[in-house]
C-alpha cells in the first residue's frame, strides 16, 4: 500500500510543473531559483551548511547540478523531545528570540517564540528508553503520547545494544599488548576541564542527557514548492544509525506520527530518511513571512516619511543557475535596505519553523546570528 | 610535564555506506575477499553548549565513511579532509572471527611507516576496516582500526593545552582559517614573519622553517577531537613523522595547533587548542609498535554490529508507514 502511495507521489512529482514565477509573498512557496538563492545565503552565513550533488542518476534538472540539496552533518540532539511534555505552565517560559538583524532594520518586533527554552525535562532519560507494549493499530485516536507509542513500535526489546547472541564472541584483549599510556582513556563523567564527552553522557546515571547526532538535509519539493527537511540520526554511544522509532522520540508529540514519516530520500537510490511532510509548510511560511514583513514595513514607514517607494519590490536575487555570482556577491549584506524580508532569508526562517517540530535537534544555529 | 594523551578516532558509518557495501558485495566482490581501497573523512572537532545546563558538550572524535567511500574520487563533505584505508569483507562470520587480525593490522602499520621514512604524510591517517555482512538480516559486523605509532618515550607537554588565542594572534588564526577554508588540509605548517601569515604542507618543513626560529614554528592539524586536553588521533602519526625526520627539533619541542574552527566564530571566540610537545631522543629510526583497534561500546576490543533492518528491510518500512 505504502509502495503504491510512493509511486503515486513520484509520478505526481514528475508531472507537476516547475514553479516559474515567484509566489513567495502570496503563498509562502518559492521557485527553484529562490531555493538556490536562499540556500546560497544559508551556506554563506553558516559554514555548517553546504550544497550536495547527490546521486547522479537522481539529478533534478530544475536545480543546478552541484546544488541539488543542502546538508549539515553531526547536528547535536541532547534530549528526547518525548521527555518535553508541554504544559500550560511552560508558557511563562516561552522566550522571545529576536532576529531583527535579519531584516537589517533592528526591529524589535521581529521576534519568534521559542517554546522549549530553558525547560527541564520532565522525565529522566531512563524512561525514554523504556519500550511500552506494542499499541493496537486502532489506538490512533489517542493523541496523547503518540510519540511514546511510536517508541513502542520499535522491534520488541530493541535497546541500543544488539542482542548478546548477535555479537560475535571475539573480544581480543591480547590484540594490543597492555594499556597504551598515550591513548586517551574514556573520559570520566565529570572531567576537571568542564567539558563533557558525548559518548559518556548516558553512563552518568541521573544525567538527563543522551546525545545523538543528526545529518539534516533540505531538499526542494517540486510538488509543494517548498523546502523539505530530512533527518538521519546516529546514536553517539554506539555510533550506529537510529531506528525510525528512535527518531520519532526526537519529534515533538504534536507532529510525531502525523507529519513525520520515513520515506526514500529523493537524491539517493537507497537511503531512507525521516522527513517532515511539506503539505503545511507553505501556509505556515506565508503567515510567518507576512508577519515579519508587516513589522518591517511598519517600522520603515514610521522611520521614513518617504515610505511609499519602499513597497516597490521584493529583492529577488536572480540566481543564474551556475552559481557563479556566489563568491563575488556575498548575499549577506543587503545592498538595498528597507525592502522587508528578502527571499534569501527564507531558509533561515524555515529552520526556525522546523526547530519547533524537532525541538531538541539543534538545526537552528541561527540564534547566534 | 604531562604525557600527551590522544583521543582515539570513533568511526561513524553513514547508512549510505552500508548500502554501498551491499551493492559492492552483490555486484562486484561477490565471494572475493581481497582488500579494496576505501576512503573516509573527518572534520575538526565540535562541541556545543547545552542550553539548559550551560555545560559544554564535546561531540565524538568521529571519522565518517559515507556512500561514496568506494569511489575513486569521492566527493568530500564540506570542510572535511580525507583519510584513505583498506576494506576487507569476509564471507562468513567464522572467517571474520578466525582471521589473523594482527597480521592485517601490521601490514597497514608497515605501509604507514614506510611512507614516513620516504618523507610523505599522505598515509598518516591510513586505516583498516574488516566486515562481515549478513545481507539477509541487514546486519553488518565491522571493526575499524586506525594504526598509530607508540612513541618510546612518550610525548609530553609543558603545562596543559590552552586556547589557541593565548599563543596566536587573531590575525594568524584568521589567516589559517581562510587558508583551510579554501583548501582543507589534514596537516600543515604555520609561520608568521613581518605580519604575514603563511600556511604550507608538512613536506616543506625544511625549506619553510629555514629562517624561522624554533619558537615561532607551528605544526598544525585538523583536529577531530573536541576534548580540551586531548588532541585527536591524527596528531600521533604526524609526531612520529616529525620525530623520524627532525629528532633534534622534536627534543626541543614543537608548538602544535589543534585546529577546531571549521565554522566561523562570530563572537571572536576560537575553539582551537595549542600546546608545546617534546620527546626525549631515542631510537628515532626504529619502527615503533602500533596500536589502534577501535573499542566497542562496552569499551572492549571487539567488533561492532550495525543493525540496519529497521531502515532497510522493506517489510519493516512498510509496517511503520502510515
From TrEMBL, chain A:
<feature type="region of interest" description="Disordered">
    <location>
        <begin position="136"/>
        <end position="167"/>
    </location>
</feature>
<dbReference type="GO" id="GO:0015031">
    <property type="term" value="P:protein transport"/>
</dbReference>
<dbReference type="GO" id="GO:0000422">
    <property type="term" value="P:autophagy of mitochondrion"/>
</dbReference>
<dbReference type="GO" id="GO:0019776">
    <property type="term" value="F:Atg8-family ligase activity"/>
</dbReference>
<keyword id="KW-0653">Protein transport</keyword>
<dbReference type="InterPro" id="IPR007135">
    <property type="entry name" value="Atg3/Atg10"/>
</dbReference>
<comment type="similarity">
    <text>Belongs to the ATG3 family.</text>
</comment>
<dbReference type="GO" id="GO:0044804">
    <property type="term" value="P:nucleophagy"/>
</dbReference>
<keyword id="KW-0963">Cytoplasm</keyword>
<dbReference type="GO" id="GO:0005829">
    <property type="term" value="C:cytosol"/>
</dbReference>
<dbReference type="GO" id="GO:0000407">
    <property type="term" value="C:phagophore assembly site"/>
</dbReference>
<protein>
    <recommendedName>
        <fullName>Autophagy-related protein 3</fullName>
    </recommendedName>
</protein>
<dbReference type="Pfam" id="PF03987">
    <property type="entry name" value="Autophagy_act_C"/>
</dbReference>
<dbReference type="GO" id="GO:0061723">
    <property type="term" value="P:glycophagy"/>
</dbReference>
<keyword id="KW-0813">Transport</keyword>
<feature type="region of interest" description="Disordered">
    <location>
        <begin position="318"/>
        <end position="337"/>
    </location>
</feature>
<dbReference type="GO" id="GO:0000045">
    <property type="term" value="P:autophagosome assembly"/>
</dbReference>
<keyword id="KW-0833">Ubl conjugation pathway</keyword>
<keyword id="KW-0072">Autophagy</keyword>
Amino acid at each position: 500500500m505504502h509502495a503504491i502511495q510512493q509511486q503515486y507521489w513520484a509520478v505526481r512529482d514528475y508531472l507537476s510543473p516547475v514553479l516559474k514565477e515567484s509566489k513567495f509573498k502570496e503563498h509562502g512557496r518559492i521557485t527553484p531559483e529562490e531555493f538556490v538563492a536562499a540556500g546560497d545565503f544559508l551556506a554563506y552565513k553558516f559554514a555548517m551548511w553546504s550544497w550536495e550533488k547527490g546521486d547522479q542518476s537522481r539529478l533534478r534538472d530544475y536545480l543546478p547540478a552541484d546544488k541539488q540539496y543542502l546538508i549539515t552533518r553531526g547536528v547535536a540532539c541532547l534530549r528526547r523531545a518525548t521527555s518535553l511534555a508541554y504544559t500550560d505552565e511552560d508558557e511563562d517560559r516561552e522566550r522571545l528570540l529576536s532576529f531583527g538583524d535579519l531584516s537589517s532594520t533592528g526591529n524589535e518586533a521581529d521576534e519568534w517564540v521559542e517554546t522549549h527554552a530553558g525547560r527541564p525535562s520532565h522525565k529522566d532519560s531512563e524512561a525514554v528508553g523504556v519500550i511500552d507494549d506494542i499499541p493496537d493499530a486502532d489506538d490512533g485516536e489517542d493523541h496523547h503520547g503518540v510519540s511514546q507509542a511510536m517508541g513502542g513500535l520499535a522491534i520488541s526489546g530493541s535497546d541500543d545494544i544488539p542482542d548478546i547472541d548477535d555479537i560475535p564472541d571475539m573480544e581480543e584483549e591480547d590484540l594490543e599488548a597492555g594499556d597504551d599510556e598515550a591513548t586517551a582513556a574514556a573520559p570520566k563523567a565529570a572531567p576537571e576541564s568542564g567539558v563533557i564527552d558525548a559518548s559518556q553522557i548516558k553512563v552518568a546515571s541521573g544525567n538527563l542527557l543522551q546525545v545523538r547526532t543528526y545529518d539534516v538535509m533540505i531538499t526542494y519539493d517540486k510538488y509543494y514548492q517548498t523546502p523539505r527537511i530530512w533527518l538521519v540520526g546516529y546514536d553517539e554511544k554506539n555510533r550506529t544509525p537510529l531506528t525510525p522509532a528512535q527518531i520519532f522520540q526526537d519529534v515533538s508529540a504534536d507532529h510525531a506520527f502525523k507529519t513525520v514519516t520515513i520515506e526514500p530520500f529523493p537524491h539517493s537510490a537507497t537511503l531512507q530518511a525521516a522527513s517532515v511532510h511539506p503539505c503545511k509548510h507553505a501556509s505556515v511560511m506565508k503567515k510567518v513571512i507576512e508577519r515579519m514583513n508587516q513589522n518591517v514595513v511598519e517600522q520603515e514607514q514610521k522611520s521614513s516619511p518617504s515610505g511609499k517607494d519602499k513597497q516597490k519590490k521584493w529583492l529577488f536575487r536572480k540566481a543564474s543557475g551556475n552559481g557563479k555570482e556566489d563568491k563575488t556577491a556575498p548575499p549577506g549584506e543587503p545592498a538595498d535596505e528597507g525592502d522587508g524580508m528578502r527571499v534569501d532569508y527564507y531558509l533561515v526562517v524555515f529552520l526556525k519553523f522546523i526547530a519547533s517540530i524537532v525541538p531538541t535537534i539543534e538545526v537552528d544555529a541561527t540564534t547566534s546570528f | 610535564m604531562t604525557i600527551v594523551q590522544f583521543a582515539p578516532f570513533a568511526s561513524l558509518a553513514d547508512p549510505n555506506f552500508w548500502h554501498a557495501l551491499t551493492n559492492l558485495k552483490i555486484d562486484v566482490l561477490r565471494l572475493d575477499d581481497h582488500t579494496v581501497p576505501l576512503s573516509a573523512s573527518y572534520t575538526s572537532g565540535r562541541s556545543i553548549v547545552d542550553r539548559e545546563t550551560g555545560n559544554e558538550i564535546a561531540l565524538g572524535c568521529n571519522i565518517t565513511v559515507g556512500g561514496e567511500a568506494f569511489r575513486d574520487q569521492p566527493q568530500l563533505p564540506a570542510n572535511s579532509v580525507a583519510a584513505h584505508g583498506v576494506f576487507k569483507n569476509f564471507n562468513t562470520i567464522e572467517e571474520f572471527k578466525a582471521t589473523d587480525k594482527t597480521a592485517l593490522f601490521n601490514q597497514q602499520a608497515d605501509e604507514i611507516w614506510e611512507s614516513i621514512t620516504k618523507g610523505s604524510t599522505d598515509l598518516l591517517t591510513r586505516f583498516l576496516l574488516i566486515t562481515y555482512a549478513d545481507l539477509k538480516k541487514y546486519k553488518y559486523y565491522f571493526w575499524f582500526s586506525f594504526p598509530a605509532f607508540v612513541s618510546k618515550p612518550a610525548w609530553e607537554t609543558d603545562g596543559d593545552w590552552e586556547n589557541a588565542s593565548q599563543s596566536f594572534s587573531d590575525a594568524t588564526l584568521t589567516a589559517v582559517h581562510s587558508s583551510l577554508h579554501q583548501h582543507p588540509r589534514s596537516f600543515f605548517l604555520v609561520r608568521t614573519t613581518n605580519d604575514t601569515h603563511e600556511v604550507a604542507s608538512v613536506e616543506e618543513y625544511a625549506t619553510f622553517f629555514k629562517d624561522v626560529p624554533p619558537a615561532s614554528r607551528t605544526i598544525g592539524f585538523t583536529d577531530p577531537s573536541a576534548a580540551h586536553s586531548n588532541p585527536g588521533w591524527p596528531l600521533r602519526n604526524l609526531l612520529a613523522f616529525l620525530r623520524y625526520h627532525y629528532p633534534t627539533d622534536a627534543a626541543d619541542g614543537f608548538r602544535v595547533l589543534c585546529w577546531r574552527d571549521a565554522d566561523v566564530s562570530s563572537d571572536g571566540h576560537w575553539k582551537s587548542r595549542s600546546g608545546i610537545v617534546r620527546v626525549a631522543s631515542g631510537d628515532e629510526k626504529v619502527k615503533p609498535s602500533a596500536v589502534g583497534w577501535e573499542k566497542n561500546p562496552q569499551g572492549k576490543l571487539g567488533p561492532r554490529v550495525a543493525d540496519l533492518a529497521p531502515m532497510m528491510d522493506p517489510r519493516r518500512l512498510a509496517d511503520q508507514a502510515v
